[in-house]
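Hi,

I'm pasting everything inline rather than attaching a file, because the server keeps stripping attachments. The sequence lines come first, and each chain or strand is labelled.
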Amino acid sequence: MTISRQDVAKVGLLARLALSEAELDTMTAELSNIVGFVSLLAELDTSHVEPLAHPLDTHNVFRDDIPQPSLTTAEALQSAPRHDGECFLVPAVLNESGAA
Amino acid sequence: MNASPTTPFTTIIGLEVHVQLQTRTKLFCGCSTQFGAPPNTHVCPTCLGLPGSLPVMNRQAFALALRAALALNCTIAPTTKWDRKNYFYPDLPKGYQISQFDLPFSSDGHLEVVDPKGAFAPRDVGIIRVHLEEDAGKSMHDEAAGTGDTRIDLNRAGTPLCEIVTQPDLRSPQEARAWLNELKLLLVYLGVSDCNMQEGSLRVDANINLHIPQPDGRIAKTPIVEIKNMNSFRSVERALVYETARQYQEWQETKAEMGSKPKQTRGWDEPAGITRGQRAKEESSDYRYFPEPDLVLVTVDAAQLAAVQSGMTEPPTELRKALESRWKISPYDADVLVNQGRELVGYFEELAGAIGEGKVASNWMQQDVLRTLNERGGTIDAFPVKPAGLADLIRRVTAGDFDTSRAREIFADMVTSGRSAAEVVATLGISAVDDDELLALCHELLAANPKIVADVRGGKEQAAAGLIGQAKKKNANVNPGKVREKCLELIRAMG
Amino acid sequence: MQPAELTAIDIVTAVRQGDLTAVQCTQAFLQRIEAHNGSINAFLNVDTAGALATAERIDKRRSQGLPIGPLAGLPVAVKDAICTADQPTTCASKMLAHFRPPYDAEVVARLRAADAVIVGKTNMDEFAMGGSNENSAFGPVRNPWDVTRAPGGSSGGSAACVAADMAPVAIGSDTGGSIRQPAGLCGITGLKPTYGRVSRRGLVAFASSLDQIGPMARSAADCALIMETIAGHDPGDATSLTGGVPRYSTQLDQPLAGVRIGRVPEHFAAGLDPEVARGVEEAFAVFKAAGATVHDIQLPHAKYGVPTYYLIAPCEASSNLARYDGAHYGHRATRRDEEGHRTPRRDEAAHGTTPHTEGAFESPLVEMYCRSRAEGFGPEVKRRIMLGTYALSAGYYDAYYAKALRVRRLIRQDYLDAFEQVDLIGGPVSATAAFKLGEKTNDPLAMYLVDLYTVTANLAGVGGISFPCGFTKSGLPIGFQLQAPALGEGLLLRATDRFQHLTAWHQRRPKSIPSATPAVR
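And the predicted assembly:
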């Protein structure tokens, strides 16, 4: 099973990973190998088997609706790469209805 | 609207509503959900998405969501799970939203909207699903500062949301607005949410397209448009009206049908009164949903459902019918009262019970109590006149102590002074005006106003209205209607 | 007494009785760390001042007759994937090189409450992805038995520091074998508890349905001591098991007569090193001599374990690591000059028609994400994120992720069926003894296969323990693994403890690391 370079580029965007041309090549080869390897599972007939997402059988775990202490703003921002003392700062996210 | 000779198309509208649940804490952590706090003061490792943090479900959030779904006549799934919806956005610190994908906790419900004035036929809107998910934080773009930065406040991140998705059963913008009002009323009655669009506890997106019958009998369907950024129910109606016209015009120009292009998103621009096309979020369609491994399954059995049902108070639809049958008031009156909320309905019922009659009580509620409330502000719970006091006033009117217009003046005094009817009557020296007094007063008025008499004799009966103000000055206790009647009688008798 | 040669049990006993002070113990191990960390690189951070301050407080309380916790004075090393509020938590990644969490993991809080002394954070494969500790952004860890060889991974630093007596116990995490395999390659004892037995709150998530925290020490008895403190329900972790925690230490010395141990013939197929095979068979013989019986069993779907794991784990990881985007914490790429930056048209980035090259980002925000992550993550992490993203993406979910979840159920059923016939399953933990550094780094698939014997326990949610059962001719440890049904930690610890009373493999120490400095007393 091979993955195309184009597929890998699309996946890179979905995963928000910048890949150089060289990395795209390497990644395409490596992923193709790995995907080929994991495709071994296709030889098993699992049509009558339910997926097992959780190894546990527990259900209905809740917490009560009682306020707990929050972090201070300083603690919340302590590892922020950029902040203004109140908010995290990120490069401009343009208004939804604005033009690009 | 449906296609007809005058409207050549049918408007098809579906709504997607997000309501914030009225819990004290967030869906997955113990941070407060209180509105209006300074930025990033209600945050913790879980809602900040810090490394190593884990979510734990808020019991009350699930209970309120169940309540909402039951009231919307949904089928409740015996087992439900949560899923991760993966995408990158700065107000989504984990890089995924915990939501529900293929196994929502409820589905297949409906909510009817009826217009008591009959502007449209009753519309029972199907509900595809109601599910429970967490809200994202807030991004604020500071144009003025010109720094090219967006500020992120994560106070809202993790707030519990119910997402309610309707079938495309609505057929006009008016219906859509009315349905939203009905939904809001229902959820406020249930204590599920305060549905306040200004504070963001209710948000709406609308999907709309047109079905246009063709000469050959086929139905042409315009591409579905999703409208976002409407911040009031009125906006929703206005946006849908605009979009209906825009789509029809576009159809006439391009004949483009559904499927010819991907679903479009348009943002409503309230000041400009138009919708604008937005950037296509191409990879937003690939959220890579998978079951949330940090949360376990939730099961709901018949006993739990019965417990939730029995704990629920009457929803608005049933309350309206109950008021109509209990107090013999019209559907319109019942609707007005119920729309004001449970507390006001309680006031009405106490009042009606005290005077033993519904219609009069309803009139006083609508014309006097509500009007005064709107002028003064405040809630019915804090209203200075209690049902017993108002009932006492109304009984005096019925007994003939004074007429309704006088009663209104007394009522106004009771509101501002907080005194009882008896106290106000005593202070103002109100007493009944007997027939002799009335006759004498009318003679005085006619003698003092020859011009008015002449006008009336000349055919202008309405001139008599000019006598009322003077009558009141001479004796505040007179009934204006009786004065007018007597004066006209006297003038006619003059020959 | 030389603290660095004592077991954890001996240390806490000595401190409690006043034969040693917490400060003496702590200093002894800090000296070992200073002497050897340069060559082993087991620690990413050593908190000398903090550790000594904690030790002093403990000694003061003890001298005042105030109560001290069950682990009082015991130095503990913590894998750098576990949050500590007073020390950096880097996950051996440039992405979190300067990250300091504002909270302690649940396990750390319990250790502190028990008066353990947290001496430092150990090196690991980046974000727990790896089987050799060569994927660390801060240099590989070297196996104390032979510093040209890998210690295993991803808890390589934790394993190496115990093997080199730089700490009597360490805390690791295990997602596909990351406690058991390095324990095996380093000649120590490592336990992966039943899924949910130990809280994951504060463990930086790799694959949430597979991750577990567990103890690594010189013996099962020492592991039992730590388990009594760290195991148990945490309301802050919805996947944590309710129900009491047994007093594991008191249940160790029951005899093994009647215990049935399964042996899987397929384990001894071509890929298993002959010396390892012999060591494993000799271990079975020891168990038989102790009164247990050994029975051949089948785990029919075992060969699908690695491909199943290498779908589920990367899929969950691709989502768990999405938060590392430079927005709220962690590494953010420096902003490039906007001049000359062409904003591509909507449709260009939209449908992947152009290769995704640097400079062609659709907005400064997307550029920040893409470059921060490209700079912050190492190659293995990127590979797994890409694999997981691909396997979850539209059109592939059913064939890959959903398929893997179905096979997972078959694998779990294998265990349920096997445990109807036996009480434990024994066998190798690794196909070879410690391999050379660099030997497998060019072939990701070869590296994935080091998890061959360990991934199925994580997939099924059951517990497993590994401990030394012999040495190769060249003096490298050979590891043996026992697996038990869910909540079978007690039996795992007991069986291992019995083995460690009948053998002395676990007491050997690497010759190339000098013995501990003279006793402080």
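Residues 338-357, 514-521 of chain C have pLDDT under 50 and may be disordered.

If the labels don't parse on your end, tell me and I'll reformat.
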